[in-house]
UniProtKB/TrEMBL annotation:
CDD domains in UniProt: GT1_Gtf-like
Top enzyme class: transferase
Keyword line: Glycosyltransferase, Transferase
InterPro entries tied to this protein: Glyco_transf_N, UDP_glucos_trans, UDP_glycos_trans_CS
Glycosyltransferase listed as a keyword: yes
Secretion signal, residue range per the UniProt entry: none
Domain (Glycosyltransferase N-terminal): residue spans on this chain: 8-134
Organism: Fagus sylvatica
Protein's name in the database: Glycosyltransferase
Length: 501
C-alpha cells in the first residue's frame, strides 16, 4: 500500500509580502519533506495564485470564504497591495475567519479518513489559529517572513515602548544585549508619536503577545547571522524558534526584457555598477529624488535605477522626468554618457544582482531585497523607509558590517554631496568598501551553506526544518496515544511534557 504523504496547512495574511514568502516556504518544505501543502487564502488571492501552480502540484490551493463588504470594506478589498491603507481593517476582519477556518480543517480531516494534518503554519497576524490547531491536536507554528533581529526590535519596541520613557537620543532595547542600543532616528515616525493608551498600541501589543499561543516560531533567516534576534525570541517566547531560510521566490521574468540589461551590464567593469531600488511599494520624496540624481551624476558611477513617481504623487502615475529629475538628466547621463539605466516599475532584480558588474545595492532594506543582495554577495547602501526596514539596516550595518546607511525615511533632508561621499566610500576601492564586499561574500557563503545537504553535511536551516517536522510528528503521536486511551490531553499539556519545548 502506498504510504500517505503528510499534509501541512499554510495560511498567510492577505498581502503579497506575506503570500510570496509563504509560497516560497511551501515549495521548500514540499521538496525537503516530500509532503503536500494545503495553502489557504481568500477567494481573490487564490484566484490570482492559481495560474502559477501546475495542476499536479503538491501544493493545493483552498479558498476561505470572505466578502470584504460584510466588514464595511470596499468591494474586492482582499489584498493590502491594492488597499495599503486598510491593513489594520483587514487584520481585524480576519478574526472573523475562525469558524470557517475550523470548518476547513475539519473537512480536511474527514477527507483524509480521520488523518490530521501534521501542522498549521500561520501568519504572524493569525496567532488565533493556534487555538483551532490545538482543538484538533495539531501543531501550530507562526512563520515570519523577516529575520529574528528586525522582528525582535519591532516586538520589544511595541511591547515596552522604551523610547517614551527616556529623553536620551540613544537607549537600550529591553531583552536585547546592552550593546544593541537604538537611536531615536532609527525608530519609524509613527512609533515616535504614539501614546501608550492609543488603540493602535493595544492592538499591536496583543498581536505580539499572542505569539506565545503558538508552539513554535519560524523565521526566514539563518542561525549563523541572526543569533541576537533568535536568542531574543527564544528567551521571550520560550518556544522553539527555528531559522529555516532563506526561502525566496524569484519574480516572474518578463520574457525579452533581460536582454537589454544583460548587454548593458556586460559592457561594464566588474563591481562598477550601483543598483538602486526601493522595493515594489516604496518611493522617496521629490527633493530626495533630485538630490539622488545629482549625486549619481556627480559621482560619475554607472547605475541601474528602478524609479517611481515621488511620494508627493500617485505611485502608479506616469513618470515625469522633466519635473522630478534635474534638467536634461536623462538625456545627458543616460543618453550621451551611457552612465545609467532608468527603469520604470519593474526590473529583473535577481538577474541584475547576480551579474558581477553590480558592486552595490542601494536598497530600502526590505527583507526580501536584503536576501536577494546578500545571496549574491552584494553589499548594501541602506535607505530604510518604514517599520522593520530601519532595524534591518541597523543590523546590517552594526552587527554584520555589510551596509552603510545613506538616509532614513521619506521625509529626511538629504544633500547630494553626502550621498556622493557615501557612494565613493563604498565604490572607490577604499578599505571600508573592500571590507563590506568581503563580509557580504562571507554572508553569501552562510546563506548557501545553511541549505546545503551533501557529503554528510546538513546545513543549519535544513536541520531546523527537520527538527520542526519531527516535533510536529511527535506531538501528533502523543495526542493520538492519549486519544486512544480515552483521554484527550490538552495539547498544551502534551507540549509542555515534551522535551523539545
Ligand atoms: C514521496 O512519498 C511517496 C509516498 O509516501 C513515496 O511513494 C515516494 O517514493 C516519496 N518520494 C521520495 C523522493 O522520497
Ligand atoms: C507535473 O507534471 C509535469 C509535466 O507533466 C512533470 O514534469 C512534473 O514532474 C509533475 N510534478 C509532480 C509533482 O508530479
Ligand atoms: C556579468 O558581468 C560580467 C562583467 O562584470 C560579464 O562579463 C558577464 O558576461 C555578465 N554575465 C551575465 C550572465 O550577464
Ligand atoms: C573616487 O573615484 C573617482 C574616479 O572614479 C574620483 O573622481 C574621485 O575623486 C574619487 N573619490 C575619492 C574620495 O577618492
Amino acid at each position: 500500500m502506498e504510504q500517505r504523504k503528510e499534509n501541512i496547512v499554510m495560511f498567510p495574511f492577505m498581502a503579497q509580502g506575506h503570500i510570496r514568502p509563504f509560497l516560497a516556504l511551501a515549495f521548500h518544505i514540499v521538496e525537503r519533506k516530500n509532503c503536500t501543502v494545503t495553502f489557504i487564502n481568500t477567494p481573490l488571492n487564490i484566484k490570482k495564485l492559481r495560474p502559477s501552480l501546475p495542476s499536479n502540484s503538491s501544493i493545493r490551493l483552498l479558498e476561505i470564504p470572505f466578502s470584504s463588504t460584510d466588514h464595511g470594506l470596499p468591494p474586492d478589498a482582499e489584498n493590502t497591495d491594492a488597499f495599503p491603507h486598510l491593513i489594520v481593517e483587514l487584520i481585524c476582519a480576519s478574526h472573523s475567519f475562525k469558524p470557517s477556518f475550523t470548518a476547513l480543517i475539519s473537512n480536511l480531516i474527514q477527507e483524509q479518513n480521520g488523518h490530521r494534518p501534521l501542522c498549521i503554519i500561520a501568519d504572524m497576524f493569525f496567532s488565533w489559529t493556534a487555538k483551532v490547531a490545538h482543538e484538533f491536536g495539531v501543531f501550530n507554528a507562526i512563520f515570519n517572513a523577516g529575520d529574528g533581529y528586525g522582528m525582535g526590535v519591532f516586538h520589544t519596541l511595541w511591547l515596552n515602548l522604551p523610547h517614551l520613557a527616556t529623553d536620551s537620543n540613544e537607549f537600550p532595547l529591553p531583552g536585547f544585549p546592552e550593546s544593541c542600543r537604538i537611536r531615536l532616528n532609527q525608530i519609524p515616525e509613527y512609533l515616535k508619536t504614539i501614546k501608550p493608551t492609543d488603540s493602535v498600541v493595544k492592538f499591536q501589543q496583543r498581536l505580539c503577545h499572542d505569539w506565545v499561543e503558538s508552539d513554535a516560531l519560524l523565521f526566514n533567516t539563518v542561525e549563523e547571522f541572526d543569533h541576537i534576534g533568535l536568542t531574543y525570541f527564544r528567551q521571550q517566547i520560550k518556544r522553539p524558534v527555528w531559522p529555516i531560510g532563506p526561502v525566496q521566490l524569484s519574480m516572474e521574468s518578463k520574457a525579452g526584457s533581460w536582454e537589454l540589461y544583460k548587454n548593458w551590464l556586460d559592457s561594464k567593469a566588474s563591481g562598477s555598477v550601483l543598483y538602486i531600488s526601493f522595493g515594489s511599494q516604496s518611493t522617496i520624496s521629490m527633493s530626495q529624488m533630485m538630490e539622488l540624481a545629482k549625486a549619481l551624476e556627480a559621482s560619475g558611477k554607472d547605475f541601474i535605477w528602478v524609479i517611481r513617481p515621488p511620494l508627493e504623487f500617485d505611485i502608479n502615475s506616469e513618470f515625469n522626468a522633466e519635473e522630478w529629475l534635474p534638467e536634461g538628466f536623462e538625456q545627458r547621463v543616460v543618453g550621451e554618457k551611457n552612465k545609467g539605466l532608468l527603469v520604470h516599475k519593474w526590473a529583473p532584480q535577481v538577474e541584475i544582482l547576480s551579474n558581477k558588474s553590480v558592486g552595490v545595492f542601494l536598497s530600502h532594506c526590505g527583507w526580501n531585497s536584503v536576501l536577494d543582495s546578500l545571496s549574491h554577495g552584494v553589499p548594501i547602501m541602506g535607505w530604510p523607509m518604514t517599520s522593520e526596514q530601519h532595524f534591518n539596516a541597523k543590523k546590517l550595518e552594526e552587527e554584520m558590517g555589510v551596509c552603510i546607511e545613506v538616509a532614513n525615511g521619506g521625509s529626511c533632508e538629504v544633500r547630494h554631496e553626502d550621498i556622493v561621499a557615501k557612494i565613493e566610500l563604498v565604490m572607490n576601492e577604499t578599505e571600508k568598501g573592500k571590507d563590506m564586499t568581503r563580509k557580504a561574500g562571507e554572508v553569501m557563503e552562510m546563506l548557501k551553506n545553511a541549505k546545503k545537504d551533501e557529503d554528510g553535511f546538513t546545513g543549519s536551516s535544513l536541520k531546523a526544518i527537520d527538527e520542526f517536522f519531527n516535533a510536529a510528528l511527535l506531538q501528533r503521536e502523543k495526542t493520538t496515544m492519549s486519544h486512544n486511551n480515552g483521554n484527550l490531553l490538552g495539547t498544551r499539556e502534551v507540549l509542555s511534557s515534551n522535551s523539545l519545548v
